[in-house]
Write a structure and sequence with these properties.
By secondary structure, this protein is of the alpha+beta class. Helix content is about 40%, strand content about 15%. It has three domains: about 130 residues, Methionyl-trna Synthetase, domain 2; about 180 residues, Orthogonal Bundle (Isoleucyl-tRNA Synthetase, Domain 1), CATH 1.10.730; about 100 residues, Nucleic acid-binding proteins (OB fold (Dihydrolipoamide Acetyltransferase, E2P)), CATH 2.40.50.140. The chain contains 18 helices and 19 strands. Helix 3 packs across helix 4, helix 5 crosses helix 6 and helix 8 runs antiparallel to helix 11. The protein starts with 6 loop residues before the first helix and ends with a strand.
């Protein structure tokens, strides 16, 4: 095959079609290779005898067809090319998804073959990377191969899909671990998406009998809507460029806008002040943001997004994409359906299996040596607890929305702390010697959220703040960077 004759045509295709090879970093590699000059390609091999033999009339039994000529042609011969063109309407392919190790065959040989036949070229050739496990290449001999069906069954298919697409830039290599998967589910999905749905369900049920009305959203929250729509407008190109990790990262920005709006405008305060219209508008804003995000998230998490859409009384379809995701429409008035939490917190790995080293020992013939387990030494002054006891403690990020001194107390501050619930928690904290009420206002803290309520100087305290104290004094334990109120710690 005279591959060298297609060098200029290939380069013209690469240059004239920006997204013909994705990711674009891989396209640049292909261009550099072709610019270095192409050699003509022998379409037969004699170094082995397996494969498709040459036609008998060529009378050369030593030659078999070059496998990449034979294999690549299957894309069109399977559709009937050369015999029955009934299914050739399916060509050209919109996307050909391949492994990065066979990119040159698909991005150089294959388009050259198609050009020689006068057939249209695929719209996009997308090359994905590899997955390792816990930093090691997967192999049957090591016993560390991840069975995707088992992972999907244990953690949920949509959750697994989100992790795989969010964790690693498309085309790059990624490392799978249950810890990383659990972190994504608990943080991105549970704390951000699921918690926001829980908050709007709670607000609607407590203040408005489950009703949601967006009629006055633009009156009070146009700035937040503008920010959300500006974020959504940037997303579609990322999807077409296969930058799915960035697509999902940017899609989470509207969720941040929604959570910040709740913390800033405080629906419980609006209701106490008799501002019901403004509180309902805030409710409508949050529901609208959830609807818009769920429409754009549905290609990645179809089952979860359908549950959100059902709760918000709309259908995810092309019309919703145009009206809610690409457009600026809001939801029509509806009564919110309460649903079970979408992302129950996962405290420990759900899959158990023999580690590679243990498996090698257990299957090795003649190796009877047992692993010696050394009990940890007791440390004076420390009472050890089991992991189950530890996970009974609920630690959450909280935002202090109100702070004042406790009259007649030299040590106590009275704080109202938003931990992602319908109303802030009242916490009585003995930190007045080191922090004033102004110091604490609008700051974030770490809260022990499942302590039994206690009374201090006649005031009920519904939690405890984490702090560190030594001879230099006391300091609060805080998140390294701002997190959504109610985010779980651990």
């Amino acid at each position: 095959f005279k591959l060298s004759a297609y060098e200029d045509k290939l380069l013209a295709w690469y240059n004239d079609t920006p997204d013909c090879i994705l990711p674009r970093s891989k396209k640049n590699e292909v261009i550099r290779f072709v610019e270095g000059g192409l050699q003509d390609l022998s379409i037969t091999r004699t170094s082995f005898d397996w494969g498709v033999k040459l036609p008998a009339d060529m009378n050369d039994p030593k030659h078999v067809m070059y496998v990449w000529l034979d294999a690549l042609m299957n894309y069109v011969t399977a559709l009937g090319y050369g015999t029955d063109d009934a299914n050739m309407d399916f060509w050209p392919a919109r996307v050909q998804l391949i492994g990065k190790d066979i990119l040159r065959f698909h991005a150089i040989y294959w388009p050259a073959f198609l050009m020689s036949l006068g057939l249209p070229l695929p719209k996009h050739i997308a090359a994905h990377g590899w997955w390792t496990r816990d930093g090691e290449k997967m192999s049957k001999s090591k016993g560390n191969v991840v069975n995707p069906k088992e992972v999907a069954d244990a953690y949920g298919l949509d959750n697994f899909r989100y992790f795989m697409l969010r964790e690693v830039p498309f085309g790059g290599d990624g490392d799978f671990s249950q810890k990383a998967l659990i972190d994504r589910i608990n943080s991105d999905l549970g704390n951000d998406l699921g918690n926001l749905l829980n908050r709007v369900i709670g607000m609607s049920g407590k203040y408005f009998d489950g009703k949601v009305d967006s009629s006055h959203v633009t009156k009070y929250y146009q700035a937040e809507l503008d920010e959300v729509h500006a974020s959504l407008d940037k997303l579609e190109p990322l999807l077409f460029e296969m930058q799915i990790h960035r697509y999902l990262e940017e899609l989470w920005r509207p969720l941040t806008v929604a959570n910040k709006a709740i913390d800033m405008y405080q629906p419980w305060t609006l209701m106490k002040e008799g501002k019901e219209e403004e509180a309902m508008a805030l409710n409508g804003l949050i529901a609208a943001i959830l609807a818009k995000v769920s429409v754009m998230l549905s290609p990645v998490m179809p089952a979860v997004c359908k549950k959100i859409a059902d709760a918000l009384h709309f259908t995810i379809d092309n019309d919703a994409w145009n009206r809610l995701a690409k457009g600026t429409e809001l939801l029509a008035p509806f009564t919110l359906e309460k649903i079970d939490p979408l992302f129950p917190r996962i405290e420990e790995p759900l899959l158990t299996q023999i580690e590679p080293e243990d498996k090698a020992l257990s299957t090795s013939s003649g190796n009877k040596q047992k692993t010696k387990v050394t009990e940890p030494a007791e440390v004076e002054g420390i009472a050890y607890i089991g992991i189950d006891q530890f996970f009974q403690t609920s630690l959450k990020v909280g935002t202090v929305v109100q702070a004042e001194e406790v009259p007649k107390s030299k040590k106590l501050l009275l704080l109202q702390v938003d931990v992602g619930e319908d109303e802030p928690r009242q916490v009585v904290a003995g930190i007045k010697e080191w922090y004033s009420a102004d110091d604490m206002l609008n700051t974030q803290v770490c809260v022990v959220a499942n302590l039994k309520p206690a009374k201090l100087m006649g005031l009920v305290s519904q939690g405890m703040l984490l702090a560190a104290k030594d001879e230099d004094g006391l300091c609060m334990i805080r998140p390294e960077k701002p997190k959504t109120a109610g985010t779980n710690i651990g």
